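Retro notes, item 3 of 5
We never archived the inputs for the pyridoxal-5'-phosphate complex last cycle. Fixing that now. Sequence and ligand:
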Amino acid sequence: MATGPDVVTASLTDTRSAELYRRALEVIPGGVNSPVRAMQAIGRDPVFVERGAGAELVDVDGNRYVDYVCSWGPLIHGHAHPDVLAAVCDAAARGTSFGAPTPGEVELATEVTRRMATVDMLRMTSSGTEATMTALRLARAATGRERVVKFAGAYHGHVDGLLAQAGSGLATQGLPSSPGVPASAAAATTVVAWNDPDALLAATTAGEPVAAIVAEPLPANMGVVAPRDGFLELLRERADATGALLVFDEVISGFRVARGGAQELMGVEADLTIIGKILGGGLPAGAVGGRAELLRMLAPSGDVYQAGTLSGNPLAVAAGLATLALLDEHAYMRLATATERLAAGLREAAATAGGYPVQVASLPGLLTVFFSERPVANLADARACDLRAHAAWCRELLSRGVYAPPSQFEAWFPSLAHTPEHVERTLDAATAAFASVGRMREEVGAG
Ligand SMILES: Cc1ncc(COP(=O)(O)O)c(C=O)c1O
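Structure as it came back at the time:
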């Protein structure tokens, strides 16, 4: 069970979620198969989900929520979209996996190359983590170098060498890295503060030559922290100047912030692109893409080894194709408008409820509410926020039927299934939640 001063489990002990959690703790470490799901950062126990439809979730106790986690990004059309379901069912009826190529893989790879200007070819994996591993191996093979530069607060999956000062679950749990990472893997990584040109210059000028500069071009794993003007261009410039490859991790931003991802939105091109989430439409999929001469280094056309029993799985490919087919220019306009309305409404809600100091950072299809008096530009700023107030606010939201990411080191994922009515319902709940957190703050202050 959750522990600590913010625990609000007393009224939840008789629920089916609580019972499942008790059983889960016996057989699954921490009761969950991925750490942030445990909701420890907001001081409560997890909600077990029964089903989802569109923008809504229903838990095993029958509580309904407007869902802003949406499986952490893949569900850009919400839960159980009929087209995606039909595509998956059709594919499943023909067989779930063959370990041999299928037509859908060619279609999906072609569709991605149409959308992402820097992707001539791609190799599929079953997760973003695997795609990152492949990208690093390719970059090292292509450059004959080992050192990798990454940014504090970025998360690229649970890859040994990239866990140092990672965002997402590590930042949520306050872990600087992880036991079990070999010293050699950590030593081959240089961590640079995001949005810090001097630190980037220093890291790419001195020391071992760099194989790759790896970045989330629009970071969303320390919360949403956009690059300052010129910072992505500097990444490109430093890669070119030093002979390193620029690797953009678009696992979150890909097909979300724009049809062609962050590279289209920001106008900066990567040598290799890591893709995931929306690519599999809610089923397990990832990919690494890039220039043909780099991708052709992969076995069997080259000698850089990479493989996967379920890579390019027909169900994931079908879900990905159906998901992308629905993502036209109109869809991107709708998603951007819904996100802007939500972001503006959350700012208003904080102001209405007593001027609680928050910064709402948003990009099309992504946002984070930072409990901070000043804008957040990097991981240190994100850590300096009032995380207790954020936690209390998230608990209040949950109790009012809004399922927000249970950590400030994550993004909200509004989807195309979120209607104006969902947004208004969310804003009503948010206003009440801000007011409630404000009262708690006053009580603590008064006490
Ligand atoms: C930017 C980014 N890269 C990589 C990953 C790892 O992807 P996966 O969880 O599919 O291994 C994530 C996961 O959240 C991510 O947000």
